[in-house]
Amino acid sequence: MRIFLCIFGLLFLGFSGCEKAVAQMVQTPGGGGLPDPQLSQKDNDYLDRQAKVFLDSVQALLAVYPPVIREGRERGLAKLLMDAVFHEKYAAFRKPSQEFFHSQTDQLIKVLEKTNVKKGAIIWKIYNMGFIVRTKSVTVAFDLVRGATSGSPDFTLSAEETDRLVKQCDVLFISHKHNDHADKIVAETFLNSGKPVISPEQVWKDDSIFSRITHLERVSEKVQKLRLSDNRTLDVVIYPGHQLTSAINNVSMITTAEGITIAHAGDQINEGEMMGDFEWIDQVSKNHKVDILMPNAWTTDICRIVRGFNPALVVPGHEIELGHTVWDRLPFWGDDKYLELNYADLKRSKYPVVVLVWGESYHYNP
Question: How much is the pLDDT for 246?
Fold first, then answer.
């Protein structure tokens, strides 16, 4: 065990920041089918073997150390191993990475298909900011995507996996237009099943799918009734958030029939011209008792956002988005100093924080 922990320690010390740059999408590799065309066959084979050993260790650790508030060292080390594997540029093109993602998703789907919630809510993380939340009365999906931004068709969830996920949900909320949050194939699967999709008007504005999507008003504190396909209703507030000055971002807050209030922040960020969004963020908890908040872990001043919502539980997301260039794939360890974040401060604060990896869930009981 001591040797095992030493290996993890060396991995942790090996991380360092890179020069800040604009995020770029991963390019499909060439070179005769090698994941990394700049490396030899033997070098690629080694990285594949290493990824398998690391990810097998991740799954073994996660099985013993499930998601909890104030998680222990062993679970943290498992996430560091994930960081090590998925911060290799062509990770999504390596078979062990693909098998890990599909295995985690398959496990999630099987659990979803047999789980009835009698009390509280269960939160599942799929990929990036993709979450599914189930209460006794409803199952809500947020920013559900297949992982296609990775550039790897073999990493991306299949049509069968997508269909099974959508079948378990009642409604999809999309925060904004970027394709690591808005997946047209997922949205079409919902719509073709008679299930509503809610998004800002910037999403697929010039596409035929646009007229089939529900566009609720982006007005702070305006409670709107959303009718589901079987005439059930949800109380919804769409806060007028932003990701960039060019990308509006719906911060969706849903209250279920049980009185559980769930908020998903999408890629809400508060910098420069977007600092004005704190005017409504700072007021949310004065008007609502928020149970669950799902913020993006890389956002600036996440502590202030959480204080504004004052939730009973925080479940962050957006770690290891493989469509981002390596330095911009937010690691589970945060990289706070370089990215100028206070995510680590949040995890040390009074707020209960549960960090999930792909395929995991947490049962929230008010």
Answer: 80
